[in-house]
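Q: Predict the assembly, please.
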Amino acid sequence: MWKEHYRIGSELIDSQHQELFGRVASFIRAVQGEESWEERLDEVQSTLEFMKDYVVIHFRDEEALQKEIGYPWLEKHAAIHNAFREEIREFAQRVEREGFDEEKVQEFAAKVMTWLIMHVGKEDQRIGEYIREQGGQQ
Amino acid sequence: MKAEYINPFYKATIDVFRIMLNLDVQRGQLRVVEELGPVSEANVVIGVTGDLRGSLLYSFPKSMALEMVAIMAGMPMTKLDAFVCSALGEVANIISGNAMTHLSGTDLACQISPPQVFVGTEGTLSMATEQAIVVPLITNIGTLELSVSLTSANGR
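A: Predicted assembly structure:
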């Protein structure tokens, strides 16, 4: 899923993005696997657990970078992060309450996948452009 | 239904397909239909409210739908299951959202409803009473037919 052209020029953020794409890919593999749902559930649960924490760390680090370089669209970007973090949190709460229904998890995995591609492929690329305009990361 | 409402959707599709799928999009011949109905197997309906009101119908051939999601996921897809359908719904949602942003540049403020996905080519969408313009959006993995049925809320 990860593409080299997603790089924005910050080593930390680029490696976190790679990690996120890798985790989402394994989440999709688990969600779309051929084995029974019960057999795939462990992987689904642990990936969801990991991502819930990892997006918090990643968004924090990415927002810190934006602040450090004086990125002008920081607030708008943080609002997008907040909305997505909230969606993941709500879904985690929902499955805790109602259980891991296969179709609901498939729908959620698709949302996470499209969100990540569009966000890193568009919104985050603006940070990359800004870094390049400023002559590389300070 | 004005033809000028179509351009924002064309622009948004070009942009979203390039970013998400690395695909070029060509516009085919527009046609007017009396009823909004599915052309291909995988369909996404999105309602529009605000200064413009109506419905959008994204109709994807099955092979195109599977290939689009395979490109995004980086693994083959074999059936129109909840994962594939949800991903298509999200793509249509993103295109529509971006088109609404383009429309707001022309002073039209609209909101969209969450995408509804259905599989099959049967029937028409009863909510639509107005004509629709169908835009074929041609890519090298297939043609998405986007039907746009929008009318101005204040009679413009």
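Residues 51 and 154 of chain B are 7 Å apart (CA to CA). Chain B touches chain A through 20 residues (CB under 8 Å).
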